[in-house]
Amino acid sequence: MSRFEVLCVTMHQQDFSKLKEMNIRSDVVFANQSDHTSYEELEFDGYTAKMISTETRGVGINRNFSLMYATADICLFADDDVVYNDDYADVILAEFEAHPDADVFIFHFDTDSERKQVKYLKTKKCGRFSRMPWGGIRIAFRLSSVKKANINFTTLFGGGCLFPSGEDSMWLAEAKRKGLTFYVSNKTIGRVKFDESTWFTGYDEKFYFAKGAFYQAVHPKTFWLWMNYFVLRTKGMGKLKAAEKRRWIKQGRVGYKTMKGFEAAEKE
User: What are the domain boundaries of the chain?
Assistant: First the structure.
């Protein structure tokens, strides 16, 4: 049986109360954005919880901290607002054991957000050109595959960073570019309230600015195709007209090139 570990980004934790809140029943690494630097361990129910507290801010850099301290064969990225099903670890390990060629597995969470309801009818291998509409908490992976490919999170994108979103998609794109094999699972491993996002405030100017920065970073040669595709895909969503969406996406492109965030673009 492979070893399994949850890699969770959190903030301002003073103890290990998240173990109960999240229903964690496995080894876990907490990357804790705090006001001090420390390392703590706790043995519970036959498992080990690690807490790495630092004063650094940003989802990407703290996911990288959790990767640095990970030791299990199979790992799962996490945010601290998820609640796992009792059997989540067994479900994840079973999928990897049934598909030995899988490097990355995508699992489902029940949620109150229709925008995030992406569930698959059956477990299947992803093709080269498959879409990847998956947030970080759905990503489980073989640690050896990720380390061998030297895949880390960007520190420019995500909560607490210059550009507020896109770090998970960039990680996935890098993993696919480096040849990792992806599967999606029809198994549900927990639940989460996506509608309480810390960065998504609707299909507004900030949202399209972030998309523009993301497309410039990941698809610079086909930026214009991605921009027009996304404007069409979000038709009728939000109050912005198509021309306004394009303008803010292009502003995001400039923002990435000049390393200036949304606040700077608002002032221009």
Answer: 4-196, 205-267
Range 223-232 average pLDDT: 93
d(CA 119, CA 129): 18
135-158 confidence digits (pLDDT tens): 889 999 999 999 999 999 888 887
Q: What element of type H or E holds 248?
A: helix 242-258
DSSP state of 92: H
Say which CATH superfamily domain 4-196 falls into. Answer: Spore Coat Polysaccharide Biosynthesis Protein SpsA; Chain A (3.90.550.10)
- Rounded Cα distance between 154 and 64, Å, is 9
pLDDT of residue 2: 75
Q: Which of 101, 82, 93 is nearest to 4 (CA)?
A: 93
**pTM across the whole model:** 0.85
Nearest to 107 by CA among 59, 141, 81: 141
Instruction: Please give the torsion angle defined by the CA atoms of residues 57, 58, 61 and 65, in that order, rounded to the nearest 10 degrees.
Output: 60
Distance from C-alpha of 245 to C-alpha of 203, rounded to nearest angstrom? 9
